[in-house]
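Backbone-to-sequence.
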């Protein structure tokens, strides 16, 4: 993990918000795009930066690519802690938990 890539990835507010969503659930590009005022290709570019920095990983499942937080990454551990105390991050994490719960109900 190159530290410059991590700081570049964390410098963007949408990328930090994406990390908050991924902290509670695996989500596809389209599921993330629904929560932002930007296109799926724009979300894909943000996800690419996060993946390149080692903060998220992806896995193809059928026609979807699901993204998840790399939980063993120290930066993600610190970011997760910050989201717990951050007034902006807390609601995103709650929404993400609700998404994860709905997904569990379907399976």
């Amino acid at each position: 993990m190159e530290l410059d890539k991590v700081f570049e990835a964390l410098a963007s507010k949408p990328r930090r918000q994406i990390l908050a969503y991924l902290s509670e659930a695996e989500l596809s590009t389209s599921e993330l795009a629904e929560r932002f005022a930007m296109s799926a290709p724009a979300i894909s570019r943000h996800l690419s930066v996060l993946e390149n920095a080692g903060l998220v990983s992806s896995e193809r499942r059928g026609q979807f690519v699901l993204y998840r937080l790399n939980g063993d990454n120290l930066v993600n551990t610190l970011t997760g802690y910050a989201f717990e105390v951050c007034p902006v991050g807390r609601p995103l994490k709650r929404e993400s938990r609700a998404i994860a719960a709905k997904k569990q109900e379907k399976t």
